[in-house]
Amino acid sequence: MKKLFSKSYKMIYVFTLIVTALFSCSSNDENSKDPSNNNPPPITTGNQDIIPSPTKITFSEPNYTISSSALIKVEENYLNAAKVIQDEMNNLGITSTVTSNITNPNIVFVYDTQLTGNAYKIEVSATGISLFVNSEESAFYAAQTLRQYIWTSDIDTNAKNIKLKSVIIEDKPENEYRGFHIDVSRHFFPKEFIFKIIDQMALYKLNKLQIHLTDDQGWRIVSDKYPLLTQIGAFREFNEHDEWCIEKAKSDADYNFNPAFVNGNTYGGFYTKQDIRDIVLYASDNYIEVIPEIDMPGHMSAAIRAYSWLSCNGETGMGEEFSRPMCVCDENVMQFAKDVWSEMIELFPSETVHIGADEVDKSFWEDETICQQFMDDNNWALVHYIQSYFVNEMTTFLEGKGKKVIAWDDVMVGNDDDIVNQVSASVDIMYWRDYKPDGSIYAAQNGNDIILTPWSWFYLSSDNNDENFISMYNFSETTELDARVINNKMGYQACVWTERIPSEAVFEKMVFPRFQGYSEVAWSKTRNFSSFKKRLKTHLLYMDEVGINYKKPGFMN
């Protein structure tokens, strides 16, 4: 990022600060029209552009200067965090040394027993920089914050000199779960791109990466026991969304497919087990848990194309809205589900796994003799019990393997009925259907923990326009959610669905810089859109430098 902090960029940055200050003096400025006008005033003052916004920042005098080289004192368990700072120094041409054996360090990590819950504190004074931390994660988050604080310090790259204003930064995450979801089934993305997304998650303090590995359009992960899942299920002929992307590419080259995943009119790709191990390790080094989603029992057309016996009648097909589900009334099909997950567990050391269980068209089961008999045998009058049976069987199985289960809120109340399903209170519910909020309320009443990803706000595959951006940023729990749901909240997740996102360039254009705004929703205790806009300027320059194909918001013009 050396270019980002060159003198020319520094002049641009200072100019934008002056212009912002001048405009902020007018009672008729654009901020007076922001929907966030009723928010509390900005919680920070001074020259800093940190995203997500820390809990408290207190500036003082004088400056602290790092010249030519930096000595970073750190114990072994904080080496990942120290490397973040070391890499930033190297980008600025300043030689840095990381060791535990230094008497007069410029930067020191200090374990602080008074801090809890991944909180951290940074103190920059006339004598040096101290990062007070209580865990590896909090050290890592402190390092990312210091990294961003350095961006707006007084940097002279020719003299290899950094002057930082004295400051105390106190911070901790507001939410335990700060997730980001990538759908690789509709369109596939190589592991190198996943690494790139992980880098951004780390910078902005997100800690859960859910990868949607399977759906009707493609099965994206190798199974040794069921090799046809990728040999057949990972590939498809162009569908209507592919055709839409092909047409769109005539006017916007970003919509061209990655040629590595196209053969004639066939589209496909998948991860090897080594690819997955590489992704998991890379994420772990950045304190991010990778959560696999194998979506069952619906959205299984790719698997059924590979193994027709997974369907009750041996065929795929569509109902009014959704595809034919697996025939979970067949014990062989249930064994398939358990076999697949047994392989996944070996690859993903995550505490949690996601079984999907959304958008299941249960009418297909009603029409099948095997399922009618299954219902009779269990004395079930309603077909929705079959889905509850599947969810509970898989929950018991996976918990027996030491995993905690996440499912979409459809497991509580399906799209096709208003019957409350019986679900174990140990299942974490991912609330996405804000058009059907009863599901989240029933989950809260049942004692389930809830992850918030309501699609009207947090589906970043929606149009990346100012209205959607501001609406997401200003999401209000107290306005939009039942109090019982808020009480059971674990945190947030932003989701990207890729039916019409065929390339990395389009992915980035849809997601960034809403990504930065979302990170502030997920991490920070308070938000202020006027403050966020001011801070975002530096992060747009950062994305220019690292090559992220973001869409500049209209409110930044």
Task: Summarize this structure as a short list of keywords or feature phrases.
557 residues; alpha/beta; Chitobiase, domain 2; TIM Barrel; 8-stranded mixed β-sheet; 8-stranded parallel beta barrel; 20 helices; disordered N terminus
Report the total helices: 20
CA radius of gyration? 25 Å
Q: Class by helix and strand content? A: alpha/beta
| CATH superfamily annotation of the largest domain | Glycosidases
Cα end-to-end separation: 23 Å
Give your account of this protein's structure.
By secondary structure, the protein is of the alpha/beta class. The protein folds into two domains: 56-171, Chitobiase/beta-hexosaminidase domain 2-like (Chitobiase, domain 2, 2-Layer Sandwich); 177-528, Glycosidases (TIM Barrel), CATH 3.20.20.80. Helices cover 37% and strands 20% of the residues. Helix 9 runs parallel beside helix 12. The longest helix is centred in the N-terminal third of the chain and has 18 residues, at 7-24. Mean pLDDT is 92; it is low at 1-44.
